[in-house]
Predict the structure.
Amino acid sequence: MSKLPKPEELARNISFQTPAKGWMDVKPDFRPGTYCNAAAPKWMEWVGYPFPRAWSVAEADWKLPPDWKEIILAGMEDRLKRFRSLKIFFDICVRCGACADKCHFYLGTGDPKNMPVLRAELMRSVYKRYFTTAGKLLGEIAGARDLTEDVLKEWFFYLHQCTICRRCSLFCPYGIDMAEMTLLGREMLASVGLNIDWALASVAQCYDKGSHIGATPQAFKDMMDFLAEENERITGITTPPSYNRKGAEVLFVMPSGDYFADPGTFTMMGYMLLFEYIGLDYTLSTYAAEGGNFGWFVSHEMGKRLNVKIYEEAKRLKVKWILGGECGHMWRVCNQYMPTYWGESPGFLEEPVSPITGTRFENAKVHKMVHISEFTADLIKHGKLKFDTQRNAHIKLTFHDSCNTSRGMGIFEEPRYIINSVLPEGNFVEMPPNTIREKTFCCGSSSGINANENMEIRMLGGFPRANAVRYVQEKYGVNHLGCICALDRATLPTLVQYWVPGMECTGITELVGNALVFPGELERTTDLRDRDLEGFGEAEETEEEGDE
Amino acid sequence: MQLRELLTQKQAPILSRWRQLVFDSYPAQTAVFLAKEQDRFSNPVGYRLSQGLKTLFEALVHGGDRERVEAGLDEILGVKAVQELAPSQSLAFIFLLKTVVRQELAQELQDSRVAGEFREFGDILDGVVLLGFDIYTRRRERLCEIRVEEVKQRVSGLLRKAGYDLTNL
């Protein structure tokens, strides 16, 4: 008969408690809620990825190919040659621990292997064993270990508990970039057929049909037409989009989240209103209908495969330059990787110049693409937009700096400038300084891990962000969380439902759409979400009743 | 209520020890971090757990207002419901308060009147565990609900276009 445990024993027997064993001997606990499911073989077949097979993360046998170890080690050797950064990051870390408590996954889970220093060590230890003399000779004493199936499983577990947000690298005195290591680690996992379903399904759909959600060109057009109708219904302004129009000045590319999922759809309506207002000569492409790039979360090769259609389409349509919607990882891929993926700065595009203000976007000289926040802020700065900020009076906002646009790309001021222009004074409140701008906390669900089955780990990864949001909700009565990232608009609503009930999420261009004053527009009584503006609807009725 | 006075007097050491026991359920390095880092935004778990324990303790000492007790429990169990798999592990911290009080008031509990009050306090804590179970379950239910919500949300634009009322799906 087994003995009943005392509360003390239960409390101290939490599953991830580190026993007296060293970290190399502690295996990850694959319990439901903490991991993403294995990719279905059909997605891998669609994109021609190696070793498609049905396997389950929860089972002991991952059905690896017989020569998996040789493949991984050859892959590591190849990447050490191609990416000098990887070799430096492996060699240079002095275990100072500056990064240890900066990762949102560590802060949420308390699992030491989510300290970036230790997460990197999972791969570094294998590098040492096979690629350094000290590791080959001294083994574990030199921090080296054999590559085993358990080690590979550990990579899979923890490399999918890193959202490539790079907060750790901000605090690293050497600037070691965990994001780059994670990306290359995931590439190696993919080389032996270890992919996660949510990311690879999105990749396969995008590769095959054109968007992560698997929408066909017809569905894309259908949805855009619907959003234009919605704009007309609410504002009285027609905002007809143009599709695949050759010779347009600008190709506008946005993430598919902006036309399929609320609240992104309201941001899309905002883009359309803005473009109509300034008379922008733009076109949408049913081929380059996805700015997001889950391929980048799987491998650079797949990132390139999905990204290349943007330049291809710009070339075919003979546009002058490209304008990008509110998206984080899309923006990082386009800004930092796209010309490299393409091979050179595309000569068929021009250095972007705003047709309205004449501003030359010198920062986009190489990739020829401008972010909507830069574009809109420039319009406001030149006094080209007329706003009625009272239409956003019901919105008390705080702003979440999305990792890729802020820490990755330095877009800090533009969205704040727009926000302050479209909201009544006093309706914008910053979160505490150590949770915004360069030090922003990730949403906890980026980099292709916004699946459904790993909800617990997502809630924990996003907890530091939610904790700061709750602070401004309680202290200042903030009711909206703004962002310029489609993944944030997809995942933050879920995060705040758990941690900060009552908080709504919004894109910034949605607020622009609310506030823009058109000549000949209908009297606005609601915002783009059909919610009553202050002074209208229920609020007004209550006032009238009170008057009587 | 002599016990209540004693608990109020010794609130700081009791809370400190209780908090440390809760932190000690984490890996050693993490337990140190949770106790040491004082910035509430750099250490959200440590802060929320500490706040929850404080709210809960004060509510218990000052008359056991149910709403305050539940607020304290929710603060802690919101975190634990996503960190740990077993409800028993998540709720065990409540019983630890008995151990802590026994240690901190070892001498005072020699007095039979205080000991009697402590037995009643123990009964109240048992009730708190039951409330905790409700809250833990509510948190887990919420997690399931938001999973479903998110699935709908992913194609919410399409559903809206097709005329569905998302709140009634």
User: Anything to note?
Assistant: Chain A touches chain B through 55 residues (CB under 8 Å).
